[in-house]
Design goal:
By secondary structure, this protein is α/β, with parallel strands linked by helices. Helix content is 43%, strand content 14%.
Amino acid sequence: MVVTPKVIVFDVNETLSNMAPLAARFVQVGVPAYLAGEWFAALLRDGFALAAAGGRAEFSLIGRELLRKVLSGAHLNRGFDDAVAHIIGGFRELRPHPDVAPGVSELRSAGFRLVTLSNGAAQIAEKLAADAGIGSDFEAFLSVDDAPTWKPTSAAYLYAAERCGVDPGDLLLVAVHPWDIHGAAVAGLRTAWVQRGETPYPSYFAAPDLTVRGIDALPGALAAS
């Protein structure tokens, strides 16, 4: 049974935002689409490595420097700096998955407090929500830029609890990433895994309290629990 949370905390990249269009940005500068996935995985890897070692760097800084590595030596159809800026700029043009807006609106109507917590910039999450017409449903757009370190370290989730004025166990972290679910569980949060696709949840991570196929399925899952 899941204790009814006081605050629902949403991850942003891939959980709320559909990041598939970023692959087109790579193609538009003259490189293969598959590099988008490799680049984003490397971005998370280096951010996690810094966090594990007690350090930190902004999401955008890591992303830009890794892009320079990924695009190095490629036959680009524009200047190197323009190519980097074009790809990074794609984050501001992302839109939510179709299930996000109706799910968020229903949760807010049910009386839940809603916030986001991203390893990226708060402004990106805020624009994503505003463009989808659900900006006012969130009381805060939180970023690890203001926390001691990145998710999935406990300090990031405890920062969110402090900002919301509740105990960690009163938060429900909603994320598509199993590593995020695991980190939140270790920090004492309740968790809901958004399973987009057919890949099973890894057995080596702490299991989620809830599993849903989309954000629009979360209100029903919480009611049933």
